[in-house]
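Dig into this one:

. . .
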Amino acid sequence: MKLLDKYILKSFLIPFLATFFIILFVLVMQAVWQAFDDFAGKGISMVFILKFLWYTMLFVAPQALPIGVLLSSIMTLGSLSENYEFAAAKSAGVSLQRMIRPLVFLAIFLSSINFLFLNYVYPYAILKQLNLRMNIKKKQPALALVPGSFNTEIPDYQIKFDEKYGEEDNLLKNVMIYDLSSKKGNNKIITAKNGELVSEEGSRYMTLILKNGHFFEHHINNQTSYQKRKKMPASYADFDEYTINIDISSFSDDGLDDVKYKSNYNMLSLAQLKDTLPTLKNNYDEFVKTRAKNLLLNVNAEDLHSVADSLKNDKISAPILDNFDDTDKRNILNAAVAKVDRTLNNIQSNKDSFKHKRKVLNLYDIEFYNRVAFSLSCLLLFFIGAPLGSIIRKGGMGLPMIFAIAIYVTYFFSNTFGRNLAEESSLTAITGAWLAMAIMSPLAIFLTIRAAQDKGMVNLNGILSNIKNFFKNTFSKKEKTL
């Protein structure tokens, strides 16, 4: 390797490593801050917190790598131009293309590393981090309870409430509880206007204090016949305060490494996504085909057929209803309206299922194409940052940082925008995944051409000169006419 190549690589790698680790630290802290409520104050050992940080660092690393390449390329090329090192090299007959050739190979290598990370390390990190986060969240089941739906995290109980409030989010409003501890179904139901969750650190019990409620229990003996069980007595009562002690000893550190969530779209490698997508598409097509067939049967569309001319009855009027009396017309119209209402209700009830299944399929499809597109972001952003640095001729962390943030925000917004459109089926998956590349590639080509020709981004002197000549020629013609 020539001395010049070593110098260029050294000038690039020093700011690259510095910016990469700084950005990685910021992204990890951001992720930790978002998950802070899930494990703060739960008595989690430092080992599991370090594991969480490690997995978080692994899955945010592919995001930090393109930013590091972009910022360090602007800083390196800007510093070399600012110190007239490029000018010295050009005077010695070394072109810009030859000078940045080792950096191009390095950018290709980093893109390959990013692809391998996205394909193998990223799914593993997501798998472990998500499962660890969910297991940590269940260390205190009170914090895992979600308003508006039945919560099944607490063993032997299903709890539903409208709102969770208070300084510690331990006060509940409009509580409904199914007590399943008897293993006989939901025969014991408790409702209350208010509730309070009380748990002490290290205790194996969580206390639920209910106020102003109603208690109902249907006494059932499973050994009796169904007819006799229907006649079994039930007990019910109103209460001012009712206390339930729930055993939560199963929520311990022993289960924090358990893996229960395995099939999310971002937990699969490209090979696994490729194997999963055909099955999902076949299931979705079968679902659509089944619903379409049911709709066809409900409206009796197969009974509508054309009649041969020789079989036409001239006594029958073309408007079908004119062939019936008023009573029959009313009955026919009522039956038609009822059938249309049933069909519309059926379509409306299936609408959410259609959207959900299509959205799940889109997520897997987008993830497959986005893995490849995002891995090339290092190469794309290098061909934006390197020529931009040689054009602006500024090194350091000032102006290059501003340009890097603006460019990456544009790239990230375009990528997110494309994925969201593809997720809602407004764009195809491949279009949504590659939208950011399609938007930013012309900028990379333009800047590379301008830098290779040793020109600025915009030739302001040329534009001002053309405007000046235009007005000069215009006024000179008027003077000659006068």
Notes: The first strand starts at residue 157 and ends at 160.
